[in-house]
């Protein structure tokens, strides 16, 4: 029972994190993305040879990929958490898979609708697709982990 409660709390917290990022105005959201990219690039610039202009240039080139990767990753975690919760309710495996993805898909749709009302943001079908692919990936990762654990049990 405690595991179910923990998973419910984690899912609600993670959905809240996604909502908070989606609630950022476009300028603030871009600033966060740019800051993350610059921090990572600086970490790999071992000679401190990049100027601020070069960092900005790199950031602008990587922003799209990083933002879409963030969508994918956020929903991969959401899909994984939902699948873990549904597993605790002993729902059949095929239903777990479809329900996990379906719930993540519906949340992605609601998230994109929400963004329509945020200054400078828009709702994108492409983002729903990326989010759903992320959720599928997260569920598949859980399935792989379960399969590996089951094979390890059989070997013992």
Describe this structure as you would to a colleague.
By secondary structure, the chain is mostly helical. It is built from 5 helices and no strands. The longest helix has 37 residues. The radius of gyration is 19 Å and the shape is globular. The protein starts with a helix and ends with a helix.
Question: What does this entry show, briefly?
Answer:
This protein is mainly alpha-helical and 156 residues long. Helices cover 85% and strands 0% of the residues. The longest helix has 37 residues.
Strand content: under 5%
For the largest beta-sheet, the strand count, sense and barrel status come to: none
Query: Count the helices. How many?
Result: 5
Based on secondary structure, the structural category is mainly alpha
Mean pLDDT comes to 93
Bin the helical content. over 70%
Instruction: Write down the oligomeric state.
Output: single chain
Principal-axis shape: globular
Report the order of strands and helices: HHHHH
Total count of strands: 0
- Rg over CA atoms: 19 Å
Uncertain runs are none
Gap from first CA to last CA: 28 Å
